[in-house]
Amino acid sequence: MTTHSARLSARVAALLAAIATTAAVAACTSTPASDGHTDHTHDATSAQAGSDTPAANADPDAVEHNAADEAFATHMIPHHEQAVALSDMVPSRSSDPAVVELAAAIAKAQQPEIETMKGFLTQWNGGASPAPGGHEGHDMGGMQMQGMVDDATMTRLESLKGKEFDTLWLQSMIGHHEGAIDMAKTELADGANATAKDLAQQIVDAQQAEIDQMKQMMGG
136: closest CA among 170, 178, 167? Predict the structure, then answer.
């Protein structure tokens, strides 16, 4: 055999050996599927399935809740929505920069809380639609939406400007906040979901501070 032929034979042998090695590795790492085709994704799929199962990803706190938690979120959503609507009235009607600033702060705080509570309902029962607000003392599930501003007062506020508006707005928002605090305290006493109760405590603390501020603004 010539030197050239020897080198060619060596290269062919090396190539065949490499092919054989690749086939052996593939055979070891592949799992035959039931239809006779090789399944190369079984291990990856199994690993992904194991990490994505509800048991693996479930947040126990998101699941643990009771009727009081659902009532809290369902009622506080429209309650907060009315607070945001009241706040939206202020810039074009108030004559007091402090009232304008407070209204903006209320809307900024409560809009994200609305989204948080909608998230609670989605986690707990597949996204139950919150009941519409706007009715004072409306009773659902044993909890009333306390402190809601009635339609007549909302209409009156829309017709006012300046100091008259500011006075009625502050009076209305104080009562509205007091109702929210009562609802939040019910959640703290009767609720089971720790995250919802944390939000309830946050509402109590923030809105009590705002009540104190509004009373001072009214000279009380």
Answer: 178
Of residues 26, 155, 146, the one with CA closest to residue 85: 155
Do 187 and 89 share a structural domain? Answer: yes
pLDDT, tens digit, 9 for 90 and up, residues 129-167: 544 443 344 444 445 578 999 999 999 999 999 999 999
Phi and psi based region of residue 130 (left: phi greater than 0; alpha: psi -120 to 50; beta: remaining): beta
Domain boundary among 13, 42, 57: 57
Domain that holds residue 17: 3-57
> What's the domain count of the chain?
2
**pLDDT (tens digit, 9 = 90+) per residue, 49-98?**
443 433 334 455 557 999 999 999 999 999 999 999 999 999 999 999 99
Same domain, 97 and 128: yes
Residues 12 and 107 in one domain: no
Same domain, residue pair 157 and 204: yes
